[in-house]
């Protein structure tokens, strides 16, 4: 038997042929061919299960091998096999989907979701690395003759009698040494198999590997070991996400996490996804301990289609705020283009996206209700996901507001309703607005916090990566509620209750004090005002307006603030406490030089309390302090 002919290229399938050149990496060829081999094995298992194949299945293992001298890579299976007619139908008619036809024929007789690929088109990825490709195949159908197909990458092919004696298929790639010699390398092939075929449902063998086995005892009765060879099975055919959650333990989930991310810390917790309507989706998502670098955390979710690795860029499938999660998603319903590398945002993808958001929200709500104390312990990590979600997803905000927490500087946690109850008695201003006070750096802002606590007000800790943005969201969402940073105003102005404190200074003395301090400070970016504050408050308080503080915080934490803030000089309000004894001392001094020196010292002390005093000004403050202490 020998036949020559031309591969059939029809107008309706010319586009997929062009698209095959859009594979992002030539290494994809091995994924496609091994997937096809697994697919052929799955088909045979299904036919056996419904009684249409009555022979022995035997070992269905797929084997990948290479011969550097012969310049070939071979992918072998013991699956369904092909006759010459099958090859003409499925290989010569490019983009004719054998898997699609098979599923349609047997959809009522078994689990069609086990069929991985579209045999035919993926096969042609072989020509990205090969100058000639051979197929040597024997069909499972009793009485079939083996068939051989050879093509050099043009539209011409040759079919002749093959020499395979066992059912299945060998795909032999004669590697193009000019462009693809790199693939005739054991480590390179092992790396590709590890990346794409790690969880295929049929065992895949790639050569052999060394194994240490015990070999008797030495003179000191200690065990001796020797090295032996064993088959190098590159995949785990039954990964955790394919199993029922009811049969898995916490250690199973942790062990699988270590398999996926060998050098990572243990995750906080996980979610097992398993849905078959209105779409098919399985997977496990882990909540990791979050590091400071957002970008380093992303692209850790792996997308599979029937256990074939597709990509770790899942932004269309997973909501943006959950890109920090780790784990695996597997769905045959996620549409992929010919390269299987780019997601298309269609209805199924959007449904899956919404489903994952709901599952994550449900899991967080469950953890919050089940063990509030443990939830609070993990809040520094959990909170990042929750806040990210509340900032970016309206539906998630609506769910998360019931389990989102606010932490104060004393380490106490409150949900939104609890915190409102805690503060509404004391922290409403003259217009009946509830004012939440917050600190972005409790150590640096300690002086302001202590002043606030004297009034029995509470202070929230907002020092997280997203808090500068989260503050604005809270103001937008919480009715008649404002948030103000502790150093944005003097304490009486932070929550303006329209309560007047009498000044011990006359209006004339206030003007004199203002003039002295303005001259001593000598800074055009600072606005000086003399105010009637409590006598136990600081003599000078330096604040930055809330708007400017917030914009600078947002810009410092990665955008979101107004870019112009980076070019604007810092603007400060300087409040001189008319009721502090030091101000009276400044006014009472006989010498102008002494007045300015004391005023400058009080101002520098206010700057020092916020970490704003540095360089020459700090040196002058230290020298002045020594001088004043010795007089």
From TrEMBL:
**SMART domains reported in the protein's UniProt record:** HATPase_c (SM00387)
Q: Pfam families recorded for this chain?
A: HATPase_c_3 (PF13589), HSP90 (PF00183)
Any keyword Chaperone?
yes
Check the record and name the InterPro entries matching this protein.
HATPase_C_sf, HATPase_dom, Heat_shock_protein_90_CS, HSP90_C, Hsp90_fam, Hsp90_N, Ribosomal_Su5_D2-typ_SF
Q: Where does ATP bind?
A: 32, 36, 77, 82, 97-98, 169, 340
Residues in domain Histidine kinase/HSP90-like ATPase?
25-179
The record's listing under CDD domains reads: HATPase_Hsp90-like
**Which is one GO molecular function term here?**
ATP binding
Give the source's domain of life in one word.
Answer: Bacteria
Q: Which PROSITE patterns match?
A: HSP90
Task: Kindly state which keywords UniProt assigns to this record, in alphabetical order.
Answer: ATP-binding, Chaperone, Cytoplasm, Nucleotide-binding, Stress response
Sequence similarity: Belongs to the heat shock protein 90 family.
Any idea what this protein is called? Answer: Chaperone protein HtpG
Q: Per the UniProt entry, what species is this protein from, by scientific name?
A: Reichenbachiella agariperforans
Record lineage = Bacteria, Pseudomonadati, Bacteroidota, Cytophagia, Cytophagales
